[in-house]
Amino acid sequence: MNHADKADRSDGADAMTQLILKTFRANGQLLEVGDRITAPFGLSSARWQVLGALAGEGRPLAVAQIARRMGLTRQSVRRTVSDLVELGFVELADNPDHKRAKLVVLTPLGIETLTEVTAVQAKLAEYLAADLDPQQLRQTLALLGQVIDRCESFKSGFSKGDSK
């Protein structure tokens, strides 16, 4: 980006660009830490995300539903689910609403493992939150929710020609 490009942006757009860059960095750091805390359980951050989506919903979901909830591609979720089936953390069940789209179901091993990982994650959350203002964390959470909503809105109205 040259200086003129930056000069043409509003303060809000410049701040948003900085937020995006920090979010990318935070995402990378969180995935790395997630991989470290889940590795002893035979998981990765990606596998943990899928298990967490199922647990958070409290019911079996189709691959496409998991992908939408987590902001991931169906292809990546499909690969991750295949790995999780192979490892015994989930199984596939018939879907009464769709003959070809199987439902992903947590197995007892998946539930037990997710419970153990969640206990480790709770310690991580305590460490990360230490000395941070809970109100600021809640404000940040609300702001990220707004950014996510705006991204969803942008995606639904975006066409290839809009990028020019």
List the keywords.
three-stranded antiparallel sheet, 164 residues, mainly alpha, Arc Repressor Mutant, subunit A
Strand content: 5-15%
* Main sheet attributes: strand count, strand direction, barrel closure: 3 strands, antiparallel
The appropriate CATH architecture of the domain at 40-153 is: Orthogonal Bundle
Order of strands across the widest beta sheet? 1-3-2
Structural class designation: mainly alpha
Radius of gyration: 19 Å
What do the pLDDT scores average to? 91
Tally the helices: what do you get? 7
Report low-confidence residues grouped into runs of 5 or more. none
CATH H-level superfamily title of the domain at 40-153: Winged helix-like DNA-binding domain superfamily/Winged helix DNA-binding domain
By CATH, the topology of the domain at 40-153 is: Arc Repressor Mutant, subunit A
Question: What is the CATH class designation of the domain at 40-153?
Answer: Mainly Alpha
What is the straight-line distance between the termini? 15 Å
Give the H and E element order. HHHEHHEEHH
- Outline, from the CA principal axes? globular
- Total number of strands: 3
Query: What is the share of helical residues?
Result: 55-70%
